[in-house]
Amino acid sequence: MQFPLRRLILTALLCLPAAVFAQYPDAPIRLNVGFPPGTGPDIVARTLSQQLGERLKQSVVVENRAGAGGQIAAQAVARSPADGYTLLLGEVGSISISPATYNNLNYNPAKDFAPISEVVRADFVLVVPATSPYKDLADFVNAGKDTKDRVNFGTFGAGTPGHFGAELFAREVGMQIEPVHYRSTGDAVSALISGGVQAAFVTTALAAPQVKGGKMRALAITGAQPSATLPGVPTFGQAGYGKVDFGAWFALFAPAGTPDAILDRLQTESAAALRTPEATRTLGDAGFTIVGSTRQDLQRLLQTEAERWTAVVKATGFKAN
């Protein structure tokens, strides 16, 4: 009689997690994003949260933890319970670039996060102030190579894609640059519009309204194809600089140790949420390409991106404390 009883208890214990996970979520989910309201990442987070919440039949609340190029939000999620109720909209800067850039990073992306799904991608565009004398990429490159002074590039912070993307660009075209790091996206954009810096790499999502509003001029796009939001702007490949091909990606993460059943459900529902007409329209109009990848595909992307950006950072010799 002991054996059947023991087997019965074991069977009950094995079934318990499935019963618990079937109730997930039974409370609001917090989606952390490391940038201010109104920015491209915030648009992605709010679009995803609305559609995901409808599918999960539970509120998904966006929490903006802006600062340090997304590191503040990443650190907060890394220290949260692994129960599926605290998520991160991570991006290439805080996940793939920062580990190679900062000696004292307070989280380890490879160990502290469970990948769920790549959400969207966005290309970068080289922009100059609307008052700049440079009308196209050739003019800008030629002037930069001829001057004895370094060309000032505005960035959204040290260690961000715009920072090392500018370094990669400078190496490929043969010019000297001086990165000027701003503490916020708004400060960097204001500096560029006013002519406080000579150029910057920003996402197509951010650049498109500024270019259409006559405040910036777009010179070239990092993507393989021209952007529908910036018609007439060539790619770097078309201009002869095919190695300037970096981009931004945004992905959904949970704290490491979150049960696979929860991660699988979040992947399935977030990918479906991105395919709704509302999400497709909003994110497309903002200049994003929808992905909705599997957990495995995101893991492969993370490995590739970590290797790539580590090499870029090492080549520049840059290190932050």
Report on this structure.
With 321 residues, this protein is α/β, with parallel strands linked by helices. It has two domains: 27-122 and 248-316, D-Maltodextrin-Binding Protein, domain 2 (3-Layer(aba) Sandwich), CATH 3.40.190; 123-221, Periplasmic binding protein-like II (D-Maltodextrin-Binding Protein, domain 2, 3-Layer(aba) Sandwich), CATH 3.40.190. 46% of the residues lie in helices and 20% in strands. The protein contains twelve helices and ten strands. Helix 2 (40-56) packs across helix 10 (260-274), helix 2 (40-56) packs antiparallel against helix 11 and helix 4 packs across helix 12 (295-316).
Tell me, what is the CATH class of the largest domain? Answer: Alpha Beta
Strand content: 15-25%
User: In the CATH classification, which architecture of the largest domain applies?
Assistant: 3-Layer(aba) Sandwich
Report the structural category: alpha/beta
Number of domains: 2
In total, the number of strands is 10
State the CATH topology of the largest domain.
D-Maltodextrin-Binding Protein, domain 2
Overall 3D form: globular
> What pattern of helices and strands is seen along the backbone?
HEHEHEHHEHEHEHEHEEHHEH
Number of helices: 12
Largest sheet: 10 strands, mixed
Helix fraction bin: 40-55%
Oligomeric state as shown: single chain
Radius of gyration, whole Å = 22 Å
List low-pLDDT spans.
none
